[in-house]
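input
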Amino acid sequence: MKHMTDQELKGFKKSLQDLQLKLNDGLDRVKGGNLNQSTKDSSGDLSGYSLHMADQATDNYDREFALNLAGNGQEILYKIDEALKRIDDKSFGICLECSKPINKSRLKVVPFAEYCVPCQSTDEKNFKPKR
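output
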Protein backbone atom coordinates (compact mmCIF):
# COMPACT_ATOMS: atom_id res chain seq x y z
CA MET A 1 0.00 0.00 0.00
CA LYS A 2 1.33 3.43 -0.97
CA HIS A 3 1.61 5.91 1.89
CA MET A 4 1.82 9.11 -0.20
CA THR A 5 0.96 10.20 -3.68
CA ASP A 6 3.57 11.64 -6.01
CA GLN A 7 1.83 15.02 -5.68
CA GLU A 8 2.15 14.91 -1.86
CA LEU A 9 5.83 13.99 -2.14
CA LYS A 10 6.40 16.93 -4.52
CA GLY A 11 4.72 19.25 -2.00
CA PHE A 12 6.90 18.01 0.84
CA LYS A 13 9.99 18.27 -1.35
CA LYS A 14 9.18 21.91 -2.12
CA SER A 15 8.59 22.64 1.60
CA LEU A 16 11.93 21.07 2.49
CA GLN A 17 13.78 22.96 -0.24
CA ASP A 18 12.19 26.27 0.82
CA LEU A 19 13.15 25.61 4.44
CA GLN A 20 16.66 24.69 3.32
CA LEU A 21 17.02 28.02 1.49
CA LYS A 22 15.78 30.01 4.50
CA LEU A 23 18.13 28.20 6.87
CA ASN A 24 21.12 28.65 4.59
CA ASP A 25 20.34 32.36 4.27
CA GLY A 26 19.99 32.72 8.05
CA LEU A 27 23.20 30.81 8.70
CA ASP A 28 25.07 32.99 6.21
CA ARG A 29 23.86 36.10 8.07
CA VAL A 30 24.84 34.67 11.47
CA LYS A 31 28.26 33.63 10.21
CA GLY A 32 28.85 36.92 8.43
CA GLY A 33 27.55 39.09 11.24
CA ASN A 34 29.14 37.91 14.42
CA LEU A 35 31.36 34.93 13.80
CA ASN A 36 33.66 36.36 11.14
CA GLN A 37 34.58 39.46 13.13
CA SER A 38 37.06 39.97 15.91
CA THR A 39 35.71 40.87 19.34
CA LYS A 40 36.91 44.44 18.85
CA ASP A 41 35.32 44.74 15.41
CA SER A 42 31.99 43.28 16.50
CA SER A 43 31.76 45.73 19.41
CA GLY A 44 32.36 48.72 17.13
CA ASP A 45 35.19 49.90 19.39
CA LEU A 46 37.62 52.06 17.46
CA SER A 47 39.83 53.08 20.37
CA GLY A 48 43.07 51.45 21.38
CA TYR A 49 41.73 50.64 24.84
CA SER A 50 40.68 47.19 25.90
CA LEU A 51 37.01 46.37 26.41
CA HIS A 52 35.39 46.56 29.80
CA MET A 53 34.92 43.11 31.34
CA ALA A 54 31.12 43.37 31.18
CA ASP A 55 31.24 44.37 27.51
CA GLN A 56 33.59 41.51 26.77
CA ALA A 57 31.30 39.06 28.58
CA THR A 58 28.33 40.28 26.55
CA ASP A 59 30.30 39.92 23.31
CA ASN A 60 31.40 36.40 24.32
CA TYR A 61 27.79 35.47 25.11
CA ASP A 62 26.65 36.82 21.72
CA ARG A 63 29.34 34.78 19.94
CA GLU A 64 28.46 31.63 21.84
CA PHE A 65 24.77 32.17 21.10
CA ALA A 66 25.55 32.62 17.39
CA LEU A 67 27.67 29.45 17.42
CA ASN A 68 24.80 27.49 19.00
CA LEU A 69 22.38 28.85 16.38
CA ALA A 70 24.77 27.88 13.60
CA GLY A 71 25.24 24.40 15.07
CA ASN A 72 21.49 23.83 15.42
CA GLY A 73 20.93 25.14 11.91
CA GLN A 74 23.55 22.77 10.52
CA GLU A 75 21.88 19.84 12.28
CA ILE A 76 18.50 20.73 10.80
CA LEU A 77 20.06 21.15 7.35
CA TYR A 78 21.50 17.64 7.67
CA LYS A 79 18.04 16.29 8.58
CA ILE A 80 16.54 18.14 5.60
CA ASP A 81 19.13 16.57 3.28
CA GLU A 82 18.29 13.14 4.65
CA ALA A 83 14.55 13.78 4.20
CA LEU A 84 15.13 14.82 0.57
CA LYS A 85 17.04 11.56 0.00
CA ARG A 86 14.11 9.63 1.50
CA ILE A 87 11.75 11.41 -0.91
CA ASP A 88 13.93 10.32 -3.82
CA ASP A 89 14.01 6.69 -2.69
CA LYS A 90 10.28 6.74 -1.80
CA SER A 91 10.82 6.01 1.91
CA PHE A 92 9.82 9.52 3.05
CA GLY A 93 7.18 9.61 5.76
CA ILE A 94 8.07 6.19 7.15
CA CYS A 95 9.32 6.05 10.75
CA LEU A 96 12.99 5.03 10.92
CA GLU A 97 12.32 3.12 14.15
CA CYS A 98 9.09 1.15 13.66
CA SER A 99 8.63 1.46 9.85
CA LYS A 100 5.05 2.70 10.27
CA PRO A 101 3.80 5.79 8.40
CA ILE A 102 4.42 9.15 10.07
CA ASN A 103 1.22 11.17 10.39
CA LYS A 104 0.97 13.69 7.53
CA SER A 105 -0.08 16.46 9.90
CA ARG A 106 3.21 15.93 11.78
CA LEU A 107 5.15 16.10 8.52
CA LYS A 108 3.44 19.37 7.61
CA VAL A 109 4.76 20.89 10.84
CA VAL A 110 8.16 19.13 10.85
CA PRO A 111 8.78 18.03 7.27
CA PHE A 112 12.15 16.53 8.19
CA ALA A 113 10.66 14.33 10.95
CA GLU A 114 12.37 10.94 11.11
CA TYR A 115 10.10 9.26 13.65
CA CYS A 116 6.40 8.89 14.33
CA VAL A 117 5.10 10.54 17.52
CA PRO A 118 5.16 7.38 19.70
CA CYS A 119 8.76 6.53 18.71
CA GLN A 120 9.88 10.16 19.11
CA SER A 121 8.29 10.27 22.58
CA THR A 122 10.03 7.06 23.61
CA ASP A 123 13.34 8.39 22.31
CA GLU A 124 12.94 11.66 24.24
CA LYS A 125 11.99 9.83 27.46
CA ASN A 126 15.09 7.63 27.18
CA PHE A 127 17.41 10.54 26.32
CA LYS A 128 20.28 10.95 28.75
CA PRO A 129 22.25 14.18 28.41
CA LYS A 130 26.03 14.01 28.14
CA ARG A 131 27.92 15.10 31.21
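quick obs: The chain has one domain: 6-125.
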